[in-house]
TrEMBL record:
Entry protein name: FAD-dependent oxidoreductase
Region of interest (Disordered), residue spans: 401-427
Reported cofactor(s): FAD
Domain Reductase C-terminal: 336-405
Pfam families, A to Z: Pyr_redox_2, Reductase_C
Superkingdom of the source species: Bacteria
FAD/NAD(P)-binding domain mapped to chain residues: 9-312
Gene3D superfamilies: 3.30.390.30, FAD/NAD(P)-binding domain
Key words of the record: FAD, Flavoprotein, Oxidoreductase
Amino acid sequence: MQGELRDGRIVVVGASLTGLRAAETLRSEGFGGSLTLIGEEPQPPYDRPPLSKQVLLGRVPADRTGLPRRREIDAEWRLGVRATGVDPYGKRVLLADGAGVPFDRLLIATGTRARPWPDPAEAALDGVFTLRTSDEAGRLAERLAAGPRRVLVIGAGFTGSEIASACRERGLEVTVAERGPAPLVGALGGTLGALAARLQRAHGVDLRCGVTVTSLEGNGRLTGARFSDGTRVEADVAVVALGAVRNTEWLAESGLAAGPRGVTCDAGCRAFDMYGIVTDDVFAAGDVARFPHPLFEYQLLSLEHWGNAVAQVEVAAHNMVNPGPRRRPHLSVPAFWSSQFGLNIKSVGVPTFSDQVVIAQGSLQEARLVAVYGYRGRVTAAVSVNQAKSLEHYERMIETAAPFPPGPGSPDQVGRMAPAPSDVPDPKVLSHGPTVALTGHLPDRRLTLVRPAR
């Protein structure tokens, strides 16, 4: 059983928000030993949400988004070097420069990266961007400030929609290509997706849904793109916003349950190995972690939320240095927010874990509302549009598994909408059912059992 750790060596791989908050919490918990933070990017930890908002609007330089330090952490920073593996027997993190960093406890907080355009030659065209890092945001903001004739945004999830909003606020012509039926539908379902589509078009976005970009064209420099419906658009900037890839490839030979869906861990953030055995010295937190949550039938959730990363890593850091009886679970209700096209969108719970939705307050017509999601007759999520003050009430409903649909909302409700199908896509990384599935082992991969020497 894991015991108390007050000295010794702790290594954190991932030097962004999650890594920084881990280090601060470890020191607050009384850990006085050696603390090392390893990060692939050369910059100290910075805040990512402003990159698709204030930075693209030119209001904040990309290099001015550094995260404030809540306390001194007395750590060794190994920045600009990539972790390439973990030696689970020698208990070392292996680095691209050939070094090895020993640990007594390890926290994996490597997060995600932007999913690249699938054709490397097209991705290399001048004018093709992704947006995840500070450097990427700085380069894109510089290009937008130069006044391109048209910007093509590929993907209308939250990041793509925020990019399109920033471009329109700058007065730029924007085309958005979305393979689904509406923007945000993958995260919020069809009801709010239809509202997002209406508002994007009202703000002058050339929104094309139900199509994919089949090719990016140009001779060294981007000139346009072709769509699956046979049409073409001219554009000198394209932003690829096709979601995120979890940074787990470096763990392929580690023996951990790590794969494309993330690093599987228990509710106390302890990582599983590939045989389904929980470890005592390796932890995971933030966007890269995949963890069970009792409010969502113990499904393994992977969340790319700022608030989840902070809450989860505080639990992880506490459990890394405290003995078993004092460990605690990560049970926070997920929450996130977005600002786009004059709307403030906030969410609590997991909207994709639903089969029905109802407008409990406000109205779609006024774009001021609270949509409440339910699954199997209980409330599982709520999303507010320009009405965030109401969410605390629905968060309590989620925590207490309140029945769905909820009772009458408030005096500002316009009419009474009957519950409708939530129309969320069948998610590939979350299944409605009690089945727990670890990642990191493929059925056709032969297992090599480690036996003690005789």
